[in-house]
C-alpha cells in the first residue's frame, strides 16, 4: 500500500483535533460552483438597483429644490415689479391731483361768475359784459388747460374761449347728461372727445352751475391740453409692453394712454370698473382685452377726483430674466434625464449580459460537478481550491483533506491504490 503525503492516522486526541479542524474548514468553503455564481450575480444586481435608485432619488431632490427656487424667483420678480409700478403711480397721482385741484378751483370760480348770467338768461356774449373776460382770466398760467366753456340748461354752448363758434348743442355729451341728472356730484370728467369747434382731441372737466333754489342752471367746463399729460406719462419707460394710462373712475374708461395703441376701444378697462368705483388701490394680473397681452396692472385713484392712474407692465418683460433661468434649469434637467436614461440602458444591458454569463457558468459548473472524470483546480501557488465529487472518489481523500493542499499530493507514488 502506497504512503500518502498527509498521514491518515494520528494517535489519540491529536488525530481528532486535526480531523475536526479539517472538517470545519471544509464546511466553510464547500459550496457548489453554481450556488457561488448565482449568489454573486444576485449581489451585484442588488447593488446596481440600489445605485440606480440613489441616482434618481438625488435627481428628484435636485429637481424639487430647483423648482422651489425658480418659483420663489418668479414671486420675487412679480413683487418687485408691483412695487415699482406702485411707486410710479404714487408720483403720477400726486402730480395729477395737484393739476386737478387747480382746475377744480378755477371751475368753482368760473361757476360763480356764470351763475348770474344763467339765472337772468343773459347768455348772449354781447349781454354778458365782462363775464367772459373774467372767466378766461382764471386760466392764466395754466398750460394744462385749453379753453373755458359755458353751457346753459338746454345744452346749448353759450361761450367758449378757444373759438368764436357758439350756439351748438352739446346735450348729447356724457358729461352734460351726468351733470344735468345729478348736479350735486361735483367735478365730472368726459370721455376722450373731439372738439366740434377745433376738431382736436381733448377731455372736458365740468361742473354744474346750481341756482339758489338748487335747480340746474347749466354747466361750466374746461378742456385739457392732452399733449401736456401725454408728455407727463411718456417720461417713464415701463418696458416694451408697458404703458401708463389715465382712466375714468366711474366706469374704467380710458381717457389717455401712453404709448397709445392703434386699436380704438374706449371701454378696454371696463373689467377694472368695480375696483375703480370702489376707490381701492391695488394690482391684478390680467389679459388686456385691447391687445391680448397679459400684464401686471396696478391702479391708484386720484384722491377726491374721478380719475384713476393705471400702470401696466407686460408679464413677459417682468419675467424675462426669470424665463432665462427657467430655460437653463430645464436644460440641466433634460441633460440629467438623458444621462440617467443612458446609464439605465447600460445597466440593463450589463445585467442582461451578467444573467447570460451566470447561466452559462452555472451550466458549466453543473457539467464539472457531474463529470465522471476527476477535476481539480489550483491557485497560482499550486494549492488546491476545488475538486469535484469524482475526484474525491478516485483519490480516497476527503474534501477537507484535499482543499488547501499542494497539487503534489497526487503524485503517482503517494496516491492510494
TrEMBL record:
Cellular localisation: Cell membrane
One Pfam family in the UniProt entry: dCache_1
Record bears the keyword Nucleotide-binding: no
Topology in membrane: Multi-pass membrane protein
Entry annotated with the keyword Ligase: no
Transmembrane parts of this sequence: 52-71, 326-344
Domain PAS per the UniProt entry, residue ranges: 360-417
Keyword annotations of the record: Cell membrane, Membrane, Transmembrane, Transmembrane helix
Database matches in Gene3D superfamilies: PAS domain (3.30.450.20)
InterPro entries: dCache_1, PAS, PAS-like_dom_sf
One cellular component term from this protein's GO annotations in UniProt: plasma membrane
Name by which UniProt lists this protein: PAS domain-containing protein
Amino acid at each position: 500500500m502506497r504512503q500518502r503525503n498527509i498521514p491518515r492516522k494520528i494517535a489519540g486526541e491529536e488525530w481528532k483535533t486535526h480531523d475536526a479542524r479539517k472538517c470545519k474548514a471544509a464546511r466553510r468553503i464547500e459550496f457548489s460552483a453554481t450556488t457561488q455564481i448565482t449568489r454573486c450575480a444576485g449581489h451585484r444586481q442588488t447593488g446596481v438597483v440600489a445605485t440606480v435608485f440613489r441616482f434618481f432619488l438625488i435627481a428628484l431632490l435636485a429637481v424639487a429644490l430647483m423648482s422651489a427656487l425658480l418659483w420663489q424667483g418668479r414671486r420675487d420678480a412679480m413683487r418687485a415689479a408691483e412695487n415699482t409700478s406702485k411707486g410710479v403711480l404714487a408720483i403720477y397721482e400726486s402730480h395729477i391731483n395737484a393739476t386737478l385741484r387747480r382746475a377744480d378751483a378755477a371751475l368753482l370760480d368760473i361757476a360763480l361768475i356764470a351763475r348770474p348770467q344763467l339765472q337772468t338768461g343773459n347768455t348772449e356774449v354781447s349781454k354778458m359784459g365782462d363775464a367772459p373776460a373774467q372767466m378766461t382770466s382764471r386760466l392764466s398760467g395754466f398750460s394744462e388747460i385749453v379753453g373755458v366753456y359755458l353751457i346753459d340748461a338746454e345744452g346749448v354752448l353759450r361761450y367758449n374761449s378757444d373759438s368764436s363758434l357758439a350756439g351748438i348743442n352739446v346735450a348729447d355729451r356724457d358729461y352734460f347728461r351726468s351733470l344735468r341728472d345729478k348736479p350735486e356730484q361735483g367735478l365730472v370728467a368726459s370721455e376722450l372727445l373731439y372738439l366740434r369747434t377745433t376738431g382736436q382731441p381733448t377731455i372736458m372737466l365740468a361742473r354744474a352751475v346750481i341756482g339758489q333754489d338748487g335747480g340746474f342752471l347749466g354747466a361750466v367746463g374746461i378742456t385739457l391740453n392732452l399733449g401736456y399729460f401725454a408728455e407727463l406719462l411718456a417720461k417713464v419707460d415701463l418696458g416694451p409692453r408697458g404703458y401708463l394710462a389715465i382712466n375714468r373712475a366711474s366706469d374704467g374708461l380710458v381717457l389717455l394712454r401712453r404709448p397709445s395703441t392703434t386699436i380704438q376701444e374706449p371701454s378696454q378697462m371696463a373689467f377694472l370698473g368695480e375696483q375703480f368705483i370702489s376707490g381701492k388701490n391695488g394690482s391684478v394680473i390680467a389679459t388686456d382685452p385691447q391687445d391680448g397681452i397679459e400684464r401686471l396692472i396696478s391702479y391708484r385713484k386720484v384722491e377726491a377726483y374721478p380719475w384713476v392712474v393705471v400702470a401696466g407692465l407686460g408679464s413677459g418683460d417682468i419675467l424675462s430674466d426669470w424665463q432665462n433661468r427657467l430655460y437653463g434649469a430645464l436644460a440641466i434637467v433634460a441633460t440629467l434625464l438623458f444621462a440617467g436614461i443612458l446609464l439605465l440602458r447600460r445597466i440593463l444591458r450589463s445585467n442582461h449580459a451578467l444573467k447570460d454569463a451566470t447561466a452559462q457558468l452555472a451550466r458549466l459548473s453543473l457539467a464539472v460537478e457531474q463529470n465522471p472524470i476527476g477535476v481539480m483546480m489550483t491557485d497560482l501557488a499550486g494549492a488546491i481550491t476545488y475538486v469535484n465529487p469524482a475526484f474525491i472518489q478516485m483519490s480516497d481523500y476527503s474534501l477537507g483533506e484535499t482543499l488547501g493542499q499542494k497539487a503534489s499530493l497526487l503524485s503517482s507514488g503517494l496516491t492510494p491504490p
